[in-house]
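Researcher: I need the complex structure. Ligand is fe (ii) ion. Inputs:
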Amino acid sequence: MTAIDDQIGRARSTGPSVQDLLAADTRPVPQSLTDHSYVPQGKADVPKVRYTAAKFAELEYEYLWTRTWQMACHVDEIPQPGDHVVYDVADQSLLVTRAKDGSIRAYHNSCLHRGTKLRTEDGRVGSFRCPFHGWKWDLDGKLVELPAEWDFPQVWQQPDSCLPEAKVAVWEGFVFVNLDPDAEPFESVAAKLIEHFGRDFNMANRYVAFHAVKEVPANWKVCMEAFAEGYHVIATHPQILEFAGDANSEYSIWEDSQYVTRFVNGFGVQSPHLGNLPEQQVADAYLAFSARAGRGAIQVPDGKSAREVVAEVFRGAMGQVFGVDLSTASDSEILDAHLYHLFPAFMPWAGVGQSLVYRWRPGRTPDTCFMDVLRMMPVPPGKERPAPAPTQRLRLEQSWKEAEGMSGLADVFEQDMENLPKVQLGLKMTAKRAKKGVSFGLYQETRIRLIHRNIDRFIAEGLAADGRSVDELTPFIVPEG
Ligand code: FES
Ligand SMILES: [Fe+2]
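Model: Output:
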Protein backbone atom coordinates (compact mmCIF):
# COMPACT_ATOMS: atom_id res chain seq x y z
CA MET A 1 0.00 0.00 0.00
CA THR A 2 1.43 3.39 -0.97
CA ALA A 3 1.40 6.46 1.20
CA ILE A 4 -1.47 7.86 -0.92
CA ASP A 5 -3.58 4.69 -0.56
CA ASP A 6 -3.17 4.87 3.17
CA GLN A 7 -4.35 8.45 3.23
CA ILE A 8 -7.18 8.33 0.68
CA GLY A 9 -9.69 11.01 1.44
CA ARG A 10 -8.37 11.76 4.93
CA ALA A 11 -6.95 15.22 4.25
CA ARG A 12 -9.25 18.18 4.90
CA SER A 13 -9.20 21.89 4.19
CA THR A 14 -8.25 24.41 6.83
CA GLY A 15 -11.11 26.34 8.42
CA PRO A 16 -13.97 25.07 10.59
CA SER A 17 -15.60 21.81 9.52
CA VAL A 18 -19.36 21.64 9.12
CA GLN A 19 -19.48 19.67 12.38
CA ASP A 20 -17.58 22.55 14.05
CA LEU A 21 -20.20 24.97 12.75
CA LEU A 22 -23.00 22.74 14.04
CA ALA A 23 -21.34 22.53 17.44
CA ALA A 24 -21.28 26.35 17.62
CA ASP A 25 -24.90 26.69 16.46
CA THR A 26 -27.10 28.96 18.58
CA ARG A 27 -29.90 26.34 18.53
CA PRO A 28 -30.02 22.53 18.78
CA VAL A 29 -29.37 21.13 15.31
CA PRO A 30 -31.37 18.30 13.73
CA GLN A 31 -29.95 14.88 14.50
CA SER A 32 -29.67 14.11 10.79
CA LEU A 33 -27.04 16.80 10.35
CA THR A 34 -24.72 15.31 12.94
CA ASP A 35 -25.15 11.93 11.24
CA HIS A 36 -22.14 12.14 8.97
CA SER A 37 -19.70 9.59 7.69
CA TYR A 38 -17.13 9.06 5.01
CA VAL A 39 -16.15 5.94 3.09
CA PRO A 40 -13.22 6.29 0.68
CA GLN A 41 -13.88 5.35 -2.93
CA GLY A 42 -10.35 4.98 -4.21
CA LYS A 43 -8.21 7.21 -6.37
CA ALA A 44 -8.52 5.69 -9.86
CA ASP A 45 -9.18 7.97 -12.80
CA VAL A 46 -12.68 7.72 -14.27
CA PRO A 47 -12.56 7.08 -18.04
CA LYS A 48 -13.66 10.07 -20.10
CA VAL A 49 -15.45 7.86 -22.64
CA ARG A 50 -18.18 7.28 -20.06
CA TYR A 51 -19.38 10.80 -20.83
CA THR A 52 -18.96 10.83 -24.59
CA ALA A 53 -19.39 7.38 -26.14
CA ALA A 54 -22.70 6.40 -27.73
CA LYS A 55 -22.02 2.79 -26.71
CA PHE A 56 -21.83 3.69 -23.01
CA ALA A 57 -24.98 5.83 -23.28
CA GLU A 58 -26.68 2.77 -24.80
CA LEU A 59 -25.59 0.62 -21.86
CA GLU A 60 -26.98 3.26 -19.50
CA TYR A 61 -30.22 3.36 -21.49
CA GLU A 62 -30.57 -0.37 -21.22
CA TYR A 63 -29.39 -1.14 -17.72
CA LEU A 64 -29.45 2.05 -15.66
CA TRP A 65 -32.54 4.04 -16.59
CA THR A 66 -34.73 0.94 -16.83
CA ARG A 67 -33.65 -0.43 -13.47
CA THR A 68 -33.43 2.47 -11.01
CA TRP A 69 -35.88 4.57 -9.00
CA GLN A 70 -36.55 7.94 -10.58
CA MET A 71 -38.71 10.86 -9.57
CA ALA A 72 -41.43 11.14 -12.21
CA CYS A 73 -43.66 13.93 -10.84
CA HIS A 74 -45.28 15.39 -7.73
CA VAL A 75 -48.61 14.04 -6.45
CA ASP A 76 -50.09 17.56 -6.73
CA GLU A 77 -49.71 17.32 -10.52
CA ILE A 78 -52.15 14.40 -10.66
CA PRO A 79 -54.85 15.13 -8.04
CA GLN A 80 -57.83 13.63 -9.96
CA PRO A 81 -58.43 10.29 -11.73
CA GLY A 82 -57.22 10.61 -15.32
CA ASP A 83 -54.68 13.34 -14.57
CA HIS A 84 -51.40 12.19 -15.99
CA VAL A 85 -47.78 13.17 -16.46
CA VAL A 86 -45.74 11.70 -19.29
CA TYR A 87 -42.40 10.67 -17.83
CA ASP A 88 -39.87 10.21 -20.61
CA VAL A 89 -36.41 8.94 -19.76
CA ALA A 90 -33.80 7.65 -22.21
CA ASP A 91 -35.90 5.79 -24.83
CA GLN A 92 -38.61 4.81 -22.34
CA SER A 93 -41.91 6.50 -21.53
CA LEU A 94 -44.39 6.06 -18.70
CA LEU A 95 -47.87 7.42 -18.18
CA VAL A 96 -48.01 8.34 -14.51
CA THR A 97 -51.65 8.70 -13.61
CA ARG A 98 -54.32 8.38 -10.97
CA ALA A 99 -56.69 5.46 -11.37
CA LYS A 100 -60.41 5.50 -10.48
CA ASP A 101 -59.72 4.29 -6.95
CA GLY A 102 -57.29 7.17 -6.39
CA SER A 103 -54.18 4.99 -6.56
CA ILE A 104 -51.17 6.15 -8.57
CA ARG A 105 -50.15 3.97 -11.49
CA ALA A 106 -47.32 4.16 -14.01
CA TYR A 107 -48.41 2.50 -17.26
CA HIS A 108 -46.05 1.76 -20.13
CA ASN A 109 -46.82 4.57 -22.56
CA SER A 110 -47.01 2.28 -25.56
CA CYS A 111 -49.98 0.83 -27.41
CA LEU A 112 -50.28 -2.95 -27.26
CA HIS A 113 -51.27 -3.02 -30.94
CA ARG A 114 -48.31 -1.58 -32.84
CA GLY A 115 -46.48 0.30 -30.11
CA THR A 116 -47.64 3.87 -30.64
CA LYS A 117 -46.95 6.23 -27.76
CA LEU A 118 -50.39 6.72 -26.22
CA ARG A 119 -49.92 10.22 -24.78
CA THR A 120 -47.27 12.79 -25.60
CA GLU A 121 -48.40 15.49 -23.21
CA ASP A 122 -49.48 15.87 -19.61
CA GLY A 123 -53.17 16.52 -19.01
CA ARG A 124 -56.46 14.94 -17.90
CA VAL A 125 -58.37 12.27 -19.83
CA GLY A 126 -61.26 9.88 -19.20
CA SER A 127 -59.41 7.01 -20.89
CA PHE A 128 -56.24 6.37 -22.86
CA ARG A 129 -57.07 6.04 -26.55
CA CYS A 130 -54.40 5.28 -29.12
CA PRO A 131 -54.37 7.89 -31.88
CA PHE A 132 -53.48 5.31 -34.59
CA HIS A 133 -56.35 2.76 -34.72
CA GLY A 134 -58.27 3.69 -31.60
CA TRP A 135 -57.60 0.93 -29.07
CA LYS A 136 -58.71 2.28 -25.73
CA TRP A 137 -57.77 1.55 -22.11
CA ASP A 138 -59.65 2.81 -19.07
CA LEU A 139 -57.89 4.55 -16.17
CA ASP A 140 -57.31 1.20 -14.49
CA GLY A 141 -55.34 0.05 -17.52
CA LYS A 142 -58.02 -2.33 -18.82
CA LEU A 143 -58.53 -2.60 -22.60
CA VAL A 144 -62.15 -1.48 -23.06
CA GLU A 145 -62.42 -0.77 -26.78
CA LEU A 146 -60.87 -2.35 -29.82
CA PRO A 147 -62.30 -1.39 -33.22
CA ALA A 148 -63.10 -4.56 -35.25
CA GLU A 149 -62.44 -6.71 -32.24
CA TRP A 150 -63.52 -9.77 -34.36
CA ASP A 151 -60.11 -9.54 -36.00
CA PHE A 152 -58.15 -9.72 -32.72
CA PRO A 153 -59.45 -12.72 -30.76
CA GLN A 154 -55.89 -13.28 -29.51
CA VAL A 155 -56.04 -9.90 -27.73
CA TRP A 156 -59.63 -8.91 -27.05
CA GLN A 157 -60.67 -9.79 -23.52
CA GLN A 158 -57.45 -11.70 -22.97
CA PRO A 159 -55.75 -11.39 -19.56
CA ASP A 160 -52.62 -9.75 -20.95
CA SER A 161 -54.40 -6.94 -22.75
CA CYS A 162 -54.03 -4.60 -19.76
CA LEU A 163 -51.35 -1.90 -19.98
CA PRO A 164 -48.16 -3.14 -18.31
CA GLU A 165 -47.18 -1.18 -15.20
CA ALA A 166 -43.93 0.02 -13.69
CA LYS A 167 -43.35 0.03 -9.96
CA VAL A 168 -44.46 3.15 -8.08
CA ALA A 169 -43.43 4.62 -4.72
CA VAL A 170 -44.48 7.91 -3.15
CA TRP A 171 -42.01 9.76 -0.95
CA GLU A 172 -42.81 13.11 0.70
CA GLY A 173 -45.16 14.01 -2.17
CA PHE A 174 -42.86 12.88 -4.99
CA VAL A 175 -43.85 9.99 -7.22
CA PHE A 176 -40.99 7.61 -8.00
CA VAL A 177 -41.11 4.97 -10.71
CA ASN A 178 -38.98 1.98 -11.61
CA LEU A 179 -39.31 -0.04 -14.82
CA ASP A 180 -37.70 -3.12 -13.30
CA PRO A 181 -40.30 -5.50 -11.84
CA ASP A 182 -37.55 -7.06 -9.71
CA ALA A 183 -36.10 -3.78 -8.44
CA GLU A 184 -34.97 -3.45 -4.84
CA PRO A 185 -37.83 -1.69 -2.99
CA PHE A 186 -37.67 2.11 -2.86
CA GLU A 187 -37.89 1.91 0.94
CA SER A 188 -34.58 0.11 1.10
CA VAL A 189 -32.80 2.05 -1.70
CA ALA A 190 -33.80 5.41 -0.20
CA ALA A 191 -33.69 4.38 3.47
CA LYS A 192 -31.32 7.18 4.56
CA LEU A 193 -33.36 9.82 2.76
CA ILE A 194 -36.58 8.48 4.28
CA GLU A 195 -35.06 8.43 7.75
CA HIS A 196 -33.56 11.93 7.63
CA PHE A 197 -36.43 13.76 5.99
CA GLY A 198 -39.01 11.81 7.97
CA ARG A 199 -37.42 12.90 11.23
CA ASP A 200 -36.03 16.36 10.52
CA PHE A 201 -36.99 17.95 7.22
CA ASN A 202 -40.58 18.38 6.21
CA MET A 203 -40.84 17.98 2.45
CA ALA A 204 -44.40 16.64 2.32
CA ASN A 205 -45.73 19.95 3.58
CA ARG A 206 -44.23 21.79 0.62
CA TYR A 207 -45.68 22.58 -2.77
CA VAL A 208 -44.08 23.09 -6.17
CA ALA A 209 -43.74 26.87 -6.43
CA PHE A 210 -41.48 26.77 -9.47
CA HIS A 211 -40.53 24.12 -12.01
CA ALA A 212 -38.36 24.51 -15.10
CA VAL A 213 -36.65 21.91 -17.24
CA LYS A 214 -33.88 22.78 -19.63
CA GLU A 215 -31.97 20.88 -22.27
CA VAL A 216 -28.27 21.30 -21.45
CA PRO A 217 -25.32 20.83 -23.85
CA ALA A 218 -23.45 18.25 -21.78
CA ASN A 219 -23.75 14.65 -20.69
CA TRP A 220 -26.17 14.14 -17.78
CA LYS A 221 -23.29 13.13 -15.50
CA VAL A 222 -21.25 16.22 -16.39
CA CYS A 223 -24.21 18.43 -15.52
CA MET A 224 -25.13 16.59 -12.34
CA GLU A 225 -21.54 16.50 -11.12
CA ALA A 226 -21.39 20.30 -11.44
CA PHE A 227 -23.95 20.43 -8.60
CA ALA A 228 -22.38 17.72 -6.46
CA GLU A 229 -19.42 19.59 -4.97
CA GLY A 230 -18.37 22.96 -3.57
CA TYR A 231 -14.89 22.65 -5.03
CA HIS A 232 -15.78 24.74 -8.12
CA VAL A 233 -16.88 27.80 -6.12
CA ILE A 234 -13.41 29.37 -6.10
CA ALA A 235 -13.21 29.57 -9.90
CA THR A 236 -16.87 29.54 -10.98
CA HIS A 237 -18.68 31.56 -8.26
CA PRO A 238 -15.95 33.80 -6.76
CA GLN A 239 -18.58 36.38 -5.81
CA ILE A 240 -19.67 34.22 -2.83
CA LEU A 241 -16.23 33.43 -1.34
CA GLU A 242 -16.48 36.04 1.39
CA PHE A 243 -19.40 34.21 2.99
CA ALA A 244 -19.24 30.58 1.77
CA GLY A 245 -17.29 27.79 3.47
CA ASP A 246 -16.54 26.12 0.15
CA ALA A 247 -13.34 24.12 0.61
CA ASN A 248 -14.49 23.04 4.07
CA SER A 249 -17.80 21.65 2.86
CA GLU A 250 -18.79 18.23 4.16
CA TYR A 251 -19.43 15.15 2.00
CA SER A 252 -21.15 12.19 3.59
CA ILE A 253 -21.04 8.63 2.40
CA TRP A 254 -22.48 6.09 4.81
CA GLU A 255 -21.33 2.49 4.99
CA ASP A 256 -24.92 1.23 5.08
CA SER A 257 -26.28 3.54 2.38
CA GLN A 258 -25.14 2.67 -1.12
CA TYR A 259 -27.46 5.06 -2.93
CA VAL A 260 -27.97 8.10 -0.70
CA THR A 261 -25.16 10.61 -0.06
CA ARG A 262 -25.01 14.22 1.13
CA PHE A 263 -23.09 17.44 0.59
CA VAL A 264 -23.29 20.31 3.11
CA ASN A 265 -21.91 23.75 2.30
CA GLY A 266 -21.74 26.11 5.27
CA PHE A 267 -22.70 29.75 4.74
CA GLY A 268 -22.05 32.85 6.81
CA VAL A 269 -18.42 31.82 7.18
CA GLN A 270 -15.61 32.91 4.92
CA SER A 271 -13.91 30.66 2.40
CA PRO A 272 -10.65 29.14 3.64
CA HIS A 273 -9.20 30.35 0.33
CA LEU A 274 -9.25 33.95 1.60
CA GLY A 275 -6.96 35.41 4.24
CA ASN A 276 -8.64 36.05 7.59
CA LEU A 277 -11.56 38.41 7.08
CA PRO A 278 -13.23 40.49 9.82
CA GLU A 279 -16.61 39.03 10.84
CA GLN A 280 -18.18 42.34 9.85
CA GLN A 281 -16.99 41.91 6.26
CA VAL A 282 -18.42 38.37 6.09
CA ALA A 283 -21.81 39.59 7.34
CA ASP A 284 -21.80 42.64 5.05
CA ALA A 285 -20.97 40.60 1.97
CA TYR A 286 -23.62 37.96 2.73
CA LEU A 287 -26.37 40.45 3.54
CA ALA A 288 -25.60 42.53 0.44
CA PHE A 289 -25.61 39.41 -1.80
CA SER A 290 -28.97 38.37 -0.36
CA ALA A 291 -30.28 41.91 -0.81
CA ARG A 292 -31.22 41.95 2.89
CA ALA A 293 -29.17 44.96 3.93
CA GLY A 294 -26.52 47.34 2.63
CA ARG A 295 -22.91 47.03 3.76
CA GLY A 296 -22.48 48.24 7.33
CA ALA A 297 -26.23 48.46 8.00
CA ILE A 298 -26.15 45.60 10.50
CA GLN A 299 -23.34 45.46 13.05
CA VAL A 300 -21.70 42.26 14.25
CA PRO A 301 -21.12 42.92 17.98
CA ASP A 302 -17.83 41.89 19.57
CA GLY A 303 -17.85 38.26 20.57
CA LYS A 304 -20.54 37.32 18.02
CA SER A 305 -19.98 35.61 14.72
CA ALA A 306 -21.17 36.84 11.33
CA ARG A 307 -22.92 33.50 11.03
CA GLU A 308 -25.15 33.94 14.06
CA VAL A 309 -25.94 37.58 13.25
CA VAL A 310 -26.91 36.81 9.64
CA ALA A 311 -28.86 33.73 10.72
CA GLU A 312 -30.90 35.94 13.05
CA VAL A 313 -31.70 38.40 10.24
CA PHE A 314 -32.70 35.58 7.88
CA ARG A 315 -34.68 33.82 10.63
CA GLY A 316 -36.88 36.86 11.04
CA ALA A 317 -37.21 37.59 7.32
CA MET A 318 -37.98 34.01 6.34
CA GLY A 319 -40.40 33.61 9.22
CA GLN A 320 -42.33 36.56 7.84
CA VAL A 321 -42.32 35.28 4.26
CA PHE A 322 -43.56 31.82 5.30
CA GLY A 323 -45.78 33.09 8.10
CA VAL A 324 -44.17 30.69 10.59
CA ASP A 325 -42.19 30.94 13.80
CA LEU A 326 -38.60 29.95 13.08
CA SER A 327 -37.26 30.94 16.49
CA THR A 328 -36.11 27.38 17.21
CA ALA A 329 -34.67 26.69 13.74
CA SER A 330 -30.91 26.18 13.87
CA ASP A 331 -28.46 28.52 12.15
CA SER A 332 -27.52 25.63 9.89
CA GLU A 333 -31.08 25.04 8.73
CA ILE A 334 -31.49 28.76 8.11
CA LEU A 335 -28.20 29.33 6.26
CA ASP A 336 -26.49 26.23 4.93
CA ALA A 337 -26.98 24.26 1.74
CA HIS A 338 -27.76 20.60 2.50
CA LEU A 339 -27.95 18.63 -0.73
CA TYR A 340 -28.92 14.99 -0.60
CA HIS A 341 -28.47 12.72 -3.59
CA LEU A 342 -30.44 9.60 -4.42
CA PHE A 343 -28.85 7.47 -7.11
CA PRO A 344 -28.94 7.91 -10.00
CA ALA A 345 -30.12 11.47 -10.51
CA PHE A 346 -32.38 12.99 -7.83
CA MET A 347 -31.06 15.76 -5.59
CA PRO A 348 -33.33 17.33 -2.94
CA TRP A 349 -32.16 20.11 -0.62
CA ALA A 350 -33.11 20.02 3.04
CA GLY A 351 -33.73 23.01 5.28
CA VAL A 352 -36.44 25.29 6.53
CA GLY A 353 -36.50 27.88 3.74
CA GLN A 354 -37.01 27.16 0.10
CA SER A 355 -36.01 23.65 -0.78
CA LEU A 356 -34.64 23.16 -4.25
CA VAL A 357 -34.95 19.84 -6.00
CA TYR A 358 -32.86 18.86 -9.01
CA ARG A 359 -33.35 15.98 -11.42
CA TRP A 360 -31.31 14.86 -14.44
CA ARG A 361 -32.13 12.69 -17.43
CA PRO A 362 -30.04 11.72 -20.44
CA GLY A 363 -30.48 13.58 -23.72
CA ARG A 364 -30.90 12.36 -27.27
CA THR A 365 -27.13 11.98 -27.61
CA PRO A 366 -24.39 11.58 -24.97
CA ASP A 367 -23.65 15.29 -25.47
CA THR A 368 -26.94 16.61 -24.07
CA CYS A 369 -29.19 16.09 -21.09
CA PHE A 370 -32.25 17.48 -19.36
CA MET A 371 -32.05 19.17 -15.97
CA ASP A 372 -35.13 19.97 -13.90
CA VAL A 373 -35.17 22.57 -11.14
CA LEU A 374 -38.07 22.69 -8.68
CA ARG A 375 -38.49 25.16 -5.88
CA MET A 376 -40.49 23.64 -3.04
CA MET A 377 -42.06 26.18 -0.67
CA PRO A 378 -43.75 25.51 2.66
CA VAL A 379 -47.54 25.57 2.48
CA PRO A 380 -48.52 28.69 4.45
CA PRO A 381 -50.06 27.65 7.80
CA GLY A 382 -53.85 27.54 7.73
CA LYS A 383 -53.92 27.90 3.93
CA GLU A 384 -54.89 25.35 1.28
CA ARG A 385 -52.10 23.76 -0.71
CA PRO A 386 -51.44 26.02 -3.67
CA ALA A 387 -51.65 24.31 -7.08
CA PRO A 388 -48.26 23.27 -8.46
CA ALA A 389 -46.55 25.74 -10.78
CA PRO A 390 -46.73 24.73 -14.43
CA THR A 391 -43.54 23.28 -15.93
CA GLN A 392 -41.55 25.77 -18.00
CA ARG A 393 -39.56 24.15 -20.81
CA LEU A 394 -36.32 25.73 -21.99
CA ARG A 395 -34.57 24.70 -25.18
CA LEU A 396 -30.87 24.01 -25.54
CA GLU A 397 -29.95 27.54 -26.56
CA GLN A 398 -32.12 29.24 -23.91
CA SER A 399 -30.85 30.63 -20.62
CA TRP A 400 -32.20 29.80 -17.16
CA LYS A 401 -32.76 33.56 -16.92
CA GLU A 402 -35.70 33.09 -19.29
CA ALA A 403 -37.48 30.92 -16.71
CA GLU A 404 -40.07 33.08 -15.03
CA GLY A 405 -39.67 33.14 -11.24
CA MET A 406 -36.18 31.63 -11.05
CA SER A 407 -34.86 34.97 -9.77
CA GLY A 408 -31.24 35.35 -8.57
CA LEU A 409 -30.68 31.60 -8.74
CA ALA A 410 -30.53 31.88 -12.54
CA ASP A 411 -27.38 34.06 -12.38
CA VAL A 412 -25.52 31.45 -10.34
CA PHE A 413 -26.83 28.67 -12.61
CA GLU A 414 -25.63 30.46 -15.70
CA GLN A 415 -22.12 30.54 -14.22
CA ASP A 416 -22.33 26.75 -13.90
CA MET A 417 -23.79 26.36 -17.39
CA GLU A 418 -20.90 28.30 -18.96
CA ASN A 419 -18.55 25.49 -17.98
CA LEU A 420 -20.57 22.53 -19.17
CA PRO A 421 -20.16 22.57 -22.97
CA LYS A 422 -16.45 23.24 -22.44
CA VAL A 423 -16.20 20.17 -20.22
CA GLN A 424 -18.11 18.06 -22.73
CA LEU A 425 -15.80 19.13 -25.58
CA GLY A 426 -12.63 18.66 -23.56
CA LEU A 427 -13.69 15.16 -22.53
CA LYS A 428 -13.47 14.16 -26.18
CA MET A 429 -9.68 14.60 -26.19
CA THR A 430 -8.93 10.91 -26.20
CA ALA A 431 -6.34 10.70 -28.99
CA LYS A 432 -2.98 9.10 -28.29
CA ARG A 433 -1.02 11.05 -25.68
CA ALA A 434 -4.23 12.65 -24.34
CA LYS A 435 -5.16 11.96 -20.75
CA LYS A 436 -7.76 9.19 -20.75
CA GLY A 437 -9.46 9.80 -17.46
CA VAL A 438 -10.91 12.35 -15.06
CA SER A 439 -9.00 12.75 -11.76
CA PHE A 440 -11.58 13.42 -9.08
CA GLY A 441 -10.59 14.72 -5.64
CA LEU A 442 -10.31 12.04 -3.00
CA TYR A 443 -12.70 13.75 -0.59
CA GLN A 444 -14.57 16.63 -2.18
CA GLU A 445 -15.50 14.70 -5.33
CA THR A 446 -15.63 11.26 -3.87
CA ARG A 447 -19.41 10.93 -3.97
CA ILE A 448 -19.09 11.23 -7.74
CA ARG A 449 -16.80 8.20 -7.72
CA LEU A 450 -19.43 6.22 -5.83
CA ILE A 451 -22.09 7.17 -8.40
CA HIS A 452 -19.85 5.90 -11.20
CA ARG A 453 -19.21 2.64 -9.38
CA ASN A 454 -22.95 2.20 -8.89
CA ILE A 455 -23.56 2.78 -12.61
CA ASP A 456 -20.99 0.09 -13.43
CA ARG A 457 -22.64 -2.32 -11.04
CA PHE A 458 -26.09 -1.84 -12.61
CA ILE A 459 -24.69 -2.32 -16.10
CA ALA A 460 -22.60 -5.36 -15.17
CA GLU A 461 -25.55 -7.02 -13.42
CA GLY A 462 -27.86 -6.21 -16.31
CA LEU A 463 -25.48 -7.63 -18.92
CA ALA A 464 -25.01 -10.79 -16.87
CA ALA A 465 -28.77 -11.23 -16.36
CA ASP A 466 -29.27 -10.98 -20.13
CA GLY A 467 -26.51 -13.48 -20.82
CA ARG A 468 -24.38 -10.82 -22.48
CA SER A 469 -20.65 -10.55 -22.02
CA VAL A 470 -19.47 -8.16 -19.34
CA ASP A 471 -16.64 -7.39 -21.81
CA GLU A 472 -19.02 -4.84 -23.35
CA LEU A 473 -18.46 -2.72 -20.26
CA THR A 474 -14.69 -3.20 -20.08
CA PRO A 475 -13.59 -0.18 -22.18
CA PHE A 476 -15.61 2.10 -19.88
CA ILE A 477 -15.31 0.57 -16.45
CA VAL A 478 -13.93 2.52 -13.48
CA PRO A 479 -10.87 0.53 -12.38
CA GLU A 480 -10.62 -0.80 -8.87
CA GLY A 481 -8.44 1.15 -6.47
S1 FES B 1 -51.06 1.28 -32.84
FE1 FES B 1 -52.38 1.75 -31.24
S2 FES B 1 -54.30 1.18 -32.01
FE2 FES B 1 -52.94 0.66 -33.59
FE1 LIG C 1 -22.17 26.00 -9.06
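Model: Summary of the prediction. Residues 111, 113-114, 116, 130, 132-135 surround FE2/S2 (inorganic) cluster (ligand 1) (CB under 6 Å).
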